[in-house]
Amino acid sequence: MFAVQYHRYGGSEVLRVEEAVEPHAGPGQVRIAVRATGVTPADWYLRSGMLRSVATVGFPHIPGMDAAGIVDEVGEGVTGTAVGDAVFGLVPFADLGGGAAQYAVLEAWAPKPRSWSFEEAGGAAGNIDTATRVLEALAAAEGMTLLIEGAAGGVGTMTAQLARARGLTVIGTASEGNHGFLQQLGVIPVTYGAGLADRLAPLAPHGVDVVLDAAGKGSLAELVAIAGGPHRVVTIADFDADRHGVRYSRSEAGQSPGWAGLPRAADLADQGRLTVPLHAVFPLEEAAAAHDMSATGHARGKIVISVP
Ligand SMILES: NC(=O)c1ccc[n+]([C@@H]2O[C@H](COP(=O)([O-])OP(=O)(O)OC[C@H]3O[C@@H](n4cnc5c(N)ncnc54)[C@H](OP(=O)(O)O)[C@@H]3O)[C@@H](O)[C@H]2O)c1
Asked: How far is the CA of 214 from the centre of ligand 1 (A)?
């Protein structure tokens, strides 16, 4: 099969489209003919080698942690999914990637919503998993107000919409150019940076109940003060979480609480209540440009690679 691979850590120039070893569906897995795969900051963190002390990859390595496509192999024990089904889902966590290829294995998946293109579905599963895990950790419930630091990116846009669907009020930080975009998603926008608490006061007169830090830009002390305690804050991006008494949420190998979010999100999408705003779609041979764009840190929604 063809795939994007790299054989050593480095800049995006290490990415090559070349022949690769085909994966096959193991027990409880499906294999898909990939139509699209998402690009997440972890793809280029891993590729650069900056995570090698905590997460090594085997070489050659295929990036892409989620994907959408057509099922072409069904593993032992799988029920309810058949060859030919259009699905979207998560590439096995233990492999830390593999979506940017002709074929990929999924360990958790749901039917592709009819209302989403393959590109939209290909970039959805990772952020649904993360958003669901975070909303559960925060015990986010109807009537609460959620503040998302870094609301305009892939995780932020997904978390905001899933929180709105649960009946929360969502306030999200972004640069001013993204405020109209957030409003279209039902989010009350506010500019990030020093003085956030003052800017929030008129937007959340009854205060903020829970906070997701999806930016990791060193604002945890202020976010804890805004929330009224560290137990009301979860970060997915600040490795300094411990020092602030804040929970750091990350994917773990094995069944994730986020997996249950996939079919629920598909239902919401089919009801027209969940979108995957795309920042850009790159063809497979331009995977390096997709990684470089993600590394600018200013995606408005999701960056996706389409697979021919
Ligand atoms: N632990 C986990 O499970 C997990 C899972 C997924 C992602 N992550 C991490 O979470 C972070 C976000 O991921 P992502 O996929 O959403 O990234 P992304 O799509 O690249 O989004 C980046 C967003 O960050 C915003 N931003 C930039 N500087 C900011 C600042 N100082 N304050 C607030 N927002 C700022 C940008 O908004 P503007 O353009 O408006 O500035 C942009 O929309 C990354 O660090 C990623 O590695 C962790």
From this structure: 5
